[in-house]
Amino acid sequence: MRVGVVGTAVFCLIALAMAGPSLAQKEQQEKKEPGFEAGMETAAVKFDVHDLSGIWRSVAGGLETIGPNVPSMTPAGMARLRERISADRVENPALSNDPQFKCNPQGFPRLWLDQELIENVHLDDRILQLSQWEQTVREIWMDGRKLPTPEDIAELGSSFYGYSVGRWERDTLIVDTVGLDDRNWIDDDYGYPLSSDARIEERYRRVGPDVISLQYTLYDPKYYTAPWVGDIKPWRRTPRVMNTHFGWFGLFSGVTEAICAPANEEEYHQRNAPLYAPKEK
Amino acid sequence: MRKLLLALFALVFPLAAYPQGTDVNGKKSNPHDLSGIWMRSGGDSGFSPAKDIPPLTVAGQAKLKTAAILAAPRNNLVKQVSNAAESNDLALGCNPKGFPRLLLDTTHDYHEIIMLPNRMIQLWQEERRPREIWLDGRAVPSDEMIDNLGPSWYGHAVATWQGDTLLVTTVGLDERAWVDSFGFPKSLNARVEERYKLVDPNTLQVTLTLIDPDMYTKPWVSDVKTWKKVARKDVTRRGWYGLFSQGEALCAPENGKPFVKK
User: Is the pLDDT reported for residue B61 higher than 80?
Assistant: First the structure.
């Protein structure tokens, strides 16, 4: 009896070994993750307008903000703006009160307007957006849920990256985000404010194999007298070779200091303090 | 034919088969699918209980002596302080916890595992941090590659399946981050191996091994850390499902104190 059981087991093992590739290997061969196929796509390649996967970078020129046509601001919005000292507006960056210099999260939409690398990953129920800078993540839910109401947000709490819901309207992905932390600066250059009641709409369209066009619109009647409709910001896919350093491929390859760490900031300021020391007359 | 042979093998050796079934959310379980939102339910909050910590090298002892921690010490070299202002724990100042500490420390926060064809992503509620574990067959970075890539708070991680155990190897870790909240050190030459196994559809266990001859005289093997899969309803608030429905556990200095969940 014992020999029969052992013999059966041995037979099974031999047969399995001869049966060809393992199930795991076959699964691997059959599945290919979009966006990771070798090399750079060319204009001749057909593309799926609903597939935004891959690693992208904004190549928009101009200021890294929603758009050049800023609507007039309410008194509350102006007061909030006057509190902010952008490093781009003063000679000595140490005079800036930009929260990012103390390693506060940059938040949304600022981090996305910063022209850093973003990777889109499609899942069944959402799109993940991984940001190289800050090594953080944003979720765009595609499961049909509604945007949180103000009452929902009061319980959920405001978020540096907000609560985002997306839907397709033909070939345009429309994303709405609410529940943003009102300490977020919209941009580096001026520190435009947004209130906790703000809603940001993004419209993504894949217009070519390697190009997405993106437009932001800010709805924030507390701070702006009209919607702030942005210009079109093209995102370009970065080829695999640009995201591979010393043989290591990935969004976080080759970037070891993309997470803001106060320990690094202190070291940086100590090292660069002489640059901003008052000059002797 | 292959499936028939597998079924026959499982019949002969029932203990070798993974317990089939559905998880707490009704999804059919697969031993190679670790996806879901998880919460710690067992295992020491440090790398291991104190009795299992291997002797430190001279360099490791020197490094440990510099630590000023809030937790009750597990080694007489480390100094305990009574408030955060006196501690030199980088994590208290909103520096990244790094790996493996983020995995060890999160006994009270959620994390989500997402399986993709070429990698596994761990999303940590704390720090809002994604960690990539590559399943695409790449090799563990060599020492030379690490020298070129530079140290990373979360390292460079590669994994392979060994039967139903996922073996993850992580190298290139920033030595400024402690191994755990007890101040134990690690060097840039450290290698951390994790072994993940689904023991049933709702229970994920991992053991870690820290191999760091610069700091420890032998490999440091952890106890078993256990996670339980979380039911969808328990990570849904006001109709909003997801990891961050339970709060954004981001350290922001402007919050006045670290890791304030809103």
Answer: yes
Residue A174 has pLDDT above 50, yes or no: yes
**Contact at CB, A102 and B176, closer than 8 angstroms:** no
Chain A residues whose CB is inside 8 A of the B117 CB are 28, 31-33
List of residues 6+ apart from A37 with CB closer than 8 A: none
Tell me the two tokens of residue B86. Answer: 């006196």
Give me the pLDDT at residue A132, please.
Answer: 95
Q: Name the helix (H) or strand (E) containing A264.
A: helix A262-276
Residue B260 touches chain A, beta carbons under 8 Å: no
Residue A28 — pLDDT band, cuts 50, 70, 90? very low
Give the C-alpha separation, A133 to A261, whole Å. Answer: 12
pLDDT of residue A260: 82
Kindly report the number of other CB atoms within 10 A of residue B95's CB atom: 23
- Select from A5, A24, A159 the Cβ nearest to the Cβ of B244: A159
Query: Residue A9: which of B13, B96, B176 has the nearest Cβ?
Result: B13
Query: Of A54, A59, A49, nearest to A232 (Cα)?
Result: A59
Helix (H), strand (E) counts: chain B: 4, 14
Closest to B160 in 3D by CA, of B149, B170, B168, B152: B168
Q: What ipTM was reported for this prediction?
A: 0.90
Q: What is the mean pLDDT of residues B99-108?
A: 87
Q: Rounded to two decimals, what is the model's pTM?
A: 0.86
Residue A143 C-alpha from the chain's centroid: 20
pLDDT in the model for residue B252: 78
Please list every residue in chain B whose beta carbon sits closer than 8 Å to the beta carbon of residue A247: 138, 141, 145
Indicate yes or no: CB of B239 within 8 angstroms of CB of A160: no
Give the pairing of strands B156-162 and B165-171.
antiparallel
Highest mean pLDDT: which range of A250-259, B40-49, B217-226: B217-226
- Per residue in A71-102, pLDDT (tens digit) is 999 999 999 999 999 988 888 877 888 988 88
User: Across A78-171, where does the E strand assignment appear?
Assistant: 118-122, 126-131, 136-141, 163-169
Q: Tell me the two tokens of residue B154.
A: 């979360």
Tell me the pLDDT of chain B averaged across its residues.
Answer: 90
Looking at residue B4, its pLDDT comes to: 54
d(CA B142, CA A236): 32
Q: Which of A256, A260, A265 to mutate to test the interface with B (most CBs of B within 10 A)?
A: A256
CB contact under 8 A, A102 and B253: yes
- Residue A31 has its nearest CB partner, among B117, B150, B245, at B117
Q: Which residues of A75-114 are buried (b: 16+ CB within 10 A; e: fewer)?
A: eebeebbeebebbeeeeebeebebbbbebbbbbbbbbbbb
